[in-house]
Amino acid sequence: MNLFRVRLVSTSSERQGARHGRRLSFAGLIFALLAASTAADEACRIAYDMGSSGIRAGASNSSVTSQAEIDYLGPLWAGRGLEELLEPTIAALRALPVQAGAAGECARVGGGFSAWRLALQQGPDKLAAMLARIQAGSGAAVLVIPQLQEGAYGYFGARQLLGEKLNTSHVLDIGGGSLQVAGARTSYGEALGQKIWHRHLCQEIRNAESVPCDLQPMTGEELAIARTLMTEKLSAVGAALGSPVTMTAISRPVSRGVLPAVMRLVPEGGASNRFQRSALTSAINQLAGQTREETASLIGSPPAYVAFLLSDMLLVEGLMQATGGELLEVAELDLTNLPGLLADDRAFIWAERYACYLDRLRAIGLDAYASDPATCP
Questions:
Q1: Bridge-partner residues for 329, per DSSP?
Q2: Other residues' Cβ atoms within 10 Å of the Cβ of residue 372
Q3: Of residues 331, 330, 30, the one with CA closest to residue 156
Q4: Which terminal residue of the chain has fewer beta carbons within 10 Å of its beta carbon, N or C?
Q5: How many CA atoms, within 13 angstroms, populate the side-chain half-sphere of residue 63?
Q6: CA pair distance 114, 47, nearest whole angstrom
Q7: What is the CA radius of gyration of the chain?
Q8: How many CA atoms lie within 13 A of 140 on its CB side?
Q9: Under 8 Å between Cβ of 118 and 345
Q10: C-alpha–C-alpha distance, residues 24 and 286, integer Å
Q11: DSSP state of 206
Q12: Residue 157: which region, alpha, beta or left (left: phi > 0; alpha: psi -120 to 50)?
């Protein structure tokens, strides 16, 4: 049975006092990554971006990345933990660097993001034991990365890819398990990615646990419930980011889903790389009462491709409202956390003191990453 699929893509790119260390400011994280980006090339490093839907791998001495598709959210939502995915994860961590063209014996670090943060919430001791087995079987030290650090990786990667074309204060990255609104000085992150937000709506409106569920047609009352729920979920955005905030959306749910739908339904509401919030709201109101098949016909897309479209549009509308944005820029990027991870000296220092990291993960959870490795026994 093929437990995971590998794909190759090209890429250009601390008392336990003071709780063992001090949290870094977001601006400090960005500065540290930029300062380390040159040093990262001096030694061979392999990094793994471990998200809700799989793993991507890249190396400091290769321009190619490889990918394994593994569903980490499914077993977590079912309450089974990640134990059943131990072996395919180890197999992927061993195979992917070869597929990515990594040369030599390199230090290996994995960044565990939304699904791994959820697994930590469900059982720190169990997860730490599993991570120890993963390291023993693959040589990769997997760290559970805090949301703030993930935001720093995202902005770092977008700045590398877009350069001067990035003319907004923040980038918006919507993943399957979490979303990031990341800027040079402030960041906001939440476990509210495409699949998790859709699941919230399924539970609230359809009393369903399966993802995706059929949200359409949605009545006016149900649409109001969805928008109220989104406002509640994003209540901390303004305080986290300050103002003003402008955003560039860099992920496919927007570039290949929301943007084309808005342009098809409200062509005067934007252009090929941007759209107005008012146009998005109008498009949502047009689609909410339609069936999935009718939606597909209206926007010229196969029905299977629109399962998450309405929930994605509501998520983006809520983010624009929460940040006060009237216009959203769109730039599709093959953005991963790999450039940030490869440049992250702290992560690779933790790989050398991994038993200590796992002890702290059990004791202080996510704060383990930001604690000081130099204070380990």
A1: 248, 274
A2: 15
A3: 30
A4: N
A5: 4
A6: 17
A7: 21
A8: 31
A9: no
A10: 44
A11: I
A12: alpha
Would you give the end-to-end CA distance of the chain in angstroms?
43
Helix-strand-coil split of the chain, %, nearest 5: 55, 15, 30
Q: What is the mean pLDDT of residues 146-151?
A: 87
CA neighbor of 48 nearest in space, from 79, 80, 4: 4
Residue 39: which H helix or E strand, with range? Answer: helix 26-39
Reported as a pLDDT band with limits 50, 70 and 90, residue 289 is very high
Q: Which structure tokens are listed for 122?
A: 């469900």
Sheet holding 54-59, edge to edge: 6-10, 64-69, 54-59, 45-50, 107-112, 141-144
Least confident interval from 4-8, 211-215, 222-226: 4-8
Extract the tokens encoding 48: 């793994």
Tokens linked to 60: 């400091």
pLDDT at 104 over 80: no
Task: For the chain, give the longest Cα–Cα distance.
Answer: 63
CB atoms within 10 A of CB 251: 25
Residue 175: count of CB within 10 angstroms of its CB: 25
Q: Which of 209, 166, 47, 147 is nearest to 369 (CA)?
A: 147
CA distance 279 to 270: 8
Mean pLDDT across 354-365: 98
| CB-based contact 181:360 (threshold 8 Å) | no
Separation between Cα atoms, residue 70 and residue 302, nearest integer Å:
25
Distance of CA 300 to CAs 260, 286, 316, 330, Å? Answer: 10, 15, 21, 20
Instruction: Provide the pLDDT for residue 33.
Output: 59
Give the per-residue SS3 of 359-374: HHHHHHCCHHHHCCHH
Q: Are 303 and 333 in contact (CB under 8 A)?
A: no
Cα–Cα distance for residue pair 180/149, rounded to 1 Å: 10
Residue 156 clears pLDDT 90, i.e. is over it: no
Residue 14, judged by CB atoms within 10 A of its CB (0-12, 13-18, 19+), counts as: middle
Of 186, 183, 152, 165, whose CA–CA distance to 333 is shortest?
Answer: 165
Closest CA to 140 of 114, 112, 113: 112
Strand, helix or coil for residue 161: helix
